[in-house]
């Protein structure tokens, strides 16, 4: 249980913001104390080296639209475990011990550092020497946007020996750690995880979603990949993201089982890599992407993307051959058969479009009347509201088509042709996604291969009148695999995305995003059940039931009975609000102050803004909402990151001016006209610093920075 002790002791230090005594002194001293204790108890088979790195540097990154990050004297605690005779190659394990303000940062990322300490302890006590070195990087500046990892991979002497890395992160508090990024390329790394991990949980779908930029987040994975040219594996806890980056992210909320599970997986993978022949020759195995996904957390299927491409095209070709054969039998009716198939294809697509538009209109209405996020604490509300609306709309469109367009057409024929229409849609989607190079196309393969096999096995039952019990049972068994996997995948997606909606900014209506996801999953899950609407005599009872649930839920949502947030001590789902006491001075190009003010700058981190706060704090209301200063950078607000486009709604409550005891001195040194109609400005910035010396004594000094800008 030593990892639990490590976690409790790190979080007991409190919030560990970069530059604070808690981060730069207390956390560092604690890590060093534990590492030295581990070193004393290590066996003679290993050699442990420890280094404290305090790098200074800068880099540009295209995250959030792009910006340049500068850092000075940040802290890295680096430990190298290697054989007694040394090692030429190494695998890196990375965590960060800093946190955002006002949180103990148990999951993000103290628990990962606790796991790494225990892995270091376990490996160092082994009598079996490793073939390669394992470097443990406890980095002290990740929340400032990946600075410490950059300082290490670009400046530390040990970085040159690294051939692969494992990055430990968090987007939630506990649960299973998801492999959501690998590579780039280097399929041997995925195979290492597949072989070694005891409790696998991985998805190439999560990788492609994350790398698309839909989720406004990034990890040290990017730094090692882009600046170190090193391949790796990115893991993160994803459960209960509601309290991620809040004061509720405490060690007692992370279950021991979660820590043990993560430790088992990471120890096994690190040990596998540190004894692998492929690590030393990783450049020989770097080419090719991998399709990978776990099956209910039991095991992982992984195969080269090029193999997946062949499988996908073969599956699509077989499906198109089957459809062509159906259309051409008998040949004299081929054109008529094709028209009927394309008609069913068009009606199915029309039903999907109508469903999406209708449900998004409901979501927009809910957002306009101020009831957004009613499902944030009660997820079942979203299913009762948007899920029932989507299902009812789909059924309604096909009921109308059956009643008016296919009035006297044989029911068995309609069931057959609409099954083929769904198969055609999935086959086209499979071909298109494969052509686009998306590894997630394997999902389409499941939705083509299994339904097609099912159809071929029970084709006689399709022609029998009515949907018999035998037919339904055999049909459900044939569809079991794709439906089970899709339900499992949808749980993972909603587990990740639902909490993100509480911190996605003031501009994106979260109800429309979630409603869109629900409609997509409803369309997918219903695609091979549409034919039952034509096989059964009536779906009125089902339609009335779904409509009733939808109407009742909508009335309850409009009444405000579902409060979005929760202060439940056991399972809080808080509203995120940032309040920052600021003093602003606006200068013109000649350095003259044209405007100055002081106030409490307020951000509501979700679409609801401050609407739920005003009744309790009347001073915070829409009369103090501040417009964007279009001519000033970042709308004239001191954003530490360029995220102002996500938070266009800001409030500014006038307050007394801040008078720091050691103000920063800012001085323009020179102004030089440059070619191409540009100006070079040189500044000097002086700040009073506080150095932390042994025994926690302090000494004050002044630091000067010289900045050169080209305008």
From TrEMBL:
Q: Which spans are transmembrane here?
A: 295-323, 344-373, 379-401, 471-494, 514-536, 543-565
Could you say which protein family the record assigns here?
Belongs to the peptidase M28 family.
Q: How does it sit in the membrane?
A: Multi-pass membrane protein
Query: What gene is this protein a product of?
Result: ERMP1
Mention any one GO cellular component term assigned to this protein in its UniProt record. Answer: endoplasmic reticulum membrane
Q: Name one GO biological process term.
A: proteolysis
Keyword Transmembrane helix part of the UniProt annotation: yes
Q: Which residues form the Endoplasmic reticulum metallopeptidase 1/1-A TM domain?
A: 338-558
**What InterPro entries does the entry give?**
ERMP1-like_C (IPR053973), ERMP1_1-A_TM (IPR053974), Fxna-like_M28_dom (IPR048024), M28_fam (IPR045175), Peptidase_M28 (IPR007484)
**Stretches assigned to the Peptidase M28 domain:** 76-269
Q: Which cofactor does it need?
A: Zn(2+)
Keywords noted in UniProt: Endoplasmic reticulum, Glycoprotein, Hydrolase, Membrane, Metal-binding, Metalloprotease, Protease, Transmembrane, Transmembrane helix, Zinc
Q: Where does the Endoplasmic reticulum metallopeptidase 1-like C-terminal domain lie? A: 572-686
The protein depicted here goes by the name: Endoplasmic reticulum metallopeptidase 1
**CDD domains xrefs:** M28_Fxna_like
Q: In terms of domain of life, where is this protein from?
A: Eukaryota
Q: Which GO terms describe its molecular function?
A: metal ion binding; metalloexopeptidase activity
Its annotated compartments are:
Endoplasmic reticulum membrane
